[in-house]
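Private note to self, pasted from the team thread so I don't lose it. Backbone tokens:
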């Protein structure tokens, strides 16, 4: 009986050996093969928001429109956009970005079959990251102010004076033929 001829490692890579032993090529391919992780996209979203800033919120998309509406609602609750300081506007922009990230994570998490890693008996890391983002959003909103502020409205006489149409100069009344 003769011994099998040695072959080059490149020739055996990915092929099963005849005696059932694992070759170096097989080990290398097993090491290269990665576990198919679920990709939630939070890192990509964070990077896009960090690099592009508010330009990531496209007002033409459904998500962009919803976020801009939320921003306007918060600004109105704070007394109107014209009464916000530069610091409050910056905090509000950060809150909108955080809300975008939270909405994205919520969609991913709610589609998952389980939030618990059964092997480790612990919550998945994305759930912990979500909780951290919620705490950060809560802090920003607290800094902006949780109470609703009313805007200063003009008096009734001033309001009606602005709404009245100018008097007709030709003597005919409006709306009459």
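Design output:
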């Amino acid at each position: 009986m003769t011994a099998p001829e040695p072959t080059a490692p490149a020739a055996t890579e990915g092929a099963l050996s005849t005696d059932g032993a694992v070759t170096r090529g097989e080990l290398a391919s097993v090491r290269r093969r990665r576990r198919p992780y679920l990709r939630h996209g939070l890192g990509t979203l964070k990077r896009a928001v960090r690099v592009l800033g508010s330009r990531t919120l496209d007002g033409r998309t459904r998500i962009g429109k919803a976020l801009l509406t939320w921003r306007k609602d918060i600004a109105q609750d704070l007394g109107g956009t014209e009464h916000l300081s530069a610091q409050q506007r910056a905090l509000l922009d950060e809150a909108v970005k955080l809300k975008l990230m939270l909405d994205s994570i919520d969609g991913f998490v709610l589609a998952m079959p389980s939030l618990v890693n059964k092997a480790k008996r612990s919550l998945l890391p994305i759930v912990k990251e979500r909780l951290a983002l919620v705490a950060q959003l809560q802090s920003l909103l607290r800094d902006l102010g949780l109470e609703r502020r009313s805007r200063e409205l003009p008096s009734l006489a001033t309001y009606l004076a602005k709404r009245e149409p100018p008097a007709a100069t030709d003597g005919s009344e409006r709306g009459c033929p």
